[in-house]
Amino acid sequence: MQPHKTTPEKTSSADFQAMLADHVRDPSKPAPEGIEPDRLAVYTRLVRNNLRSFLDLCFSDSSELADRELWQHLQNCFLIEARPESPFFNDIPAQFLNYARSRESEEKLPDGILAMMDFETALLHAETAIQPLSDGHWDDNTTLTWQPAAKLTHYDYNFVDSHLASIEPIPSTVLTWRNRDNEVYYRTISGTDLFLLEHFSQQQDTFEHILQSLQEMTGGQSQDIEIWLRENIDGWIKAGVLFPESSNKNTI
């Protein structure tokens, strides 16, 4: 009786893709069979260069202030060790930032540069977040909410006042947002603006309720409070930071 011949099992599509992805991340790992070496090398180079270019674009200012050799080393290690697999390309910068934060010793970027990287991911968030549309109309009892694209972040450093040219060890609070014309903005926030925006970043509220609270705190003796509050709320609504809720909601 002749023994049956066996044929080698074919590599499944999932295994092939996993092997290809591992090789692209780390070319020292074996490549899947069936791809010409020259074509594989071109594909690997394109994928890795595109990812590096995307990260350099998203972190265009912080990368300029970082040690170039360390920056390139972190990008390469990120591909190999962190294995970014998000289906959303815009998630990758935040993953790279988290990876950079996890490094220690000589692989650790300075805290000021990590802070600026956080700021640049906030700019990307402002550019891509889905926001409800609004005509900007509101009254004293309209519920006002924080727009999804806006972020108010406290840093131990100040890089905004130098127009991102340098990093100073001075605490700052930075607002990043996208206006109703889809333009992205940022600025440092302090004083009464900080008080108002911190309030709205944590909860919904109405002009009437905030005014009553402020009048109770001051004994209701100053009409200037109402003028200031109305002008500031209206300004932040027009800027696109606050959203007047209505029954007809669309998104952009």
TrEMBL record:
Pfam families referenced in this protein's UniProt entry, alphabetically: DUF2063 (PF09836), NGO1945_C (PF22106)
Boundaries of every NGO1945-like C-terminal domain copy: 148-236
Residue ranges of every copy of the Putative DNA-binding domain listed in the record: 16-99
InterPro entries per record: DUF2063, DUF2063_N_sf, NGO1945-like_C
Descriptive protein name: DUF2063 domain-containing protein
Species, as recorded: Neisseria zalophi
